[in-house]
Design a protein that fits this description.
5-stranded mixed β-sheet; Chitinase A, domain 3; alpha/beta; two-stranded parallel ribbon; single chain; 23% strand
Length: 148
């Protein structure tokens, strides 16, 4: 079951609504979800920049991001469904695998395998569990084989 926090209506594209996107790329009013690890990474970078007298523009950007985020706690480990922050292993019909972690939009810079919770794949994964199949935008079908 997908949390009410992750439904499409919460991220109405500004192209349709006429609203400007925030620094994070989300429409105004949309909640800027982030994992605890992502928040800790931003806080550590900001602390390091403050200590070293680092780049003011980056510090301002980090402060803006941190002021706008809502940290999402990991879900119940006994849950069968995929949740925000989960790392998912997918297998295609040829036996190839893809590993991705569902993260917030600002976390992509830290997570090379990251997919945002608002991406088509992220949305499909959040409503699935191990054994389910998800279809990518290019039409390929992937089976969920593992969730961490």
């Amino acid at each position: 079951m997908v949390s009410r926090a992750f439904v499409k209506e919460d991220v109405d594209p500004p192209e349709r609504s006429g609203r400007k996107r925030s620094v994070s790329g989300l429409p105004p009013g949309a909640t800027n979800y982030i994992t605890a690890l992502g928040a800790a990474r931003f806080e550590a970078e900001l602390a390091r920049l403050r200590e070293t007298g680092g780049e003011p523009a980056r510090m301002a950007a980090l402060e803006t991001i941190l002021a706008s985020v809502q940290v999402v706690d990991p879900s119940d480990p006994e849950s069968k469904g995929i949740s925000f922050g989960a790392t998912v292993t997918l297998r295609d019909t040829d036996g190839g695998t893809k590993i991705c972690t569902i993260v917030g939009v600002d976390e992509l810079e830290f997570e090379p395998r990251g997919v945002t919770w608002i991406s088509p794949l992220g949305k499909a994964l959040l409503s699935a569990e191990v054994g389910d199949r998800v279809t990518l935008e290019d039409g390929r079908s992937l089976k969920i084989v593992r969730v961490e």
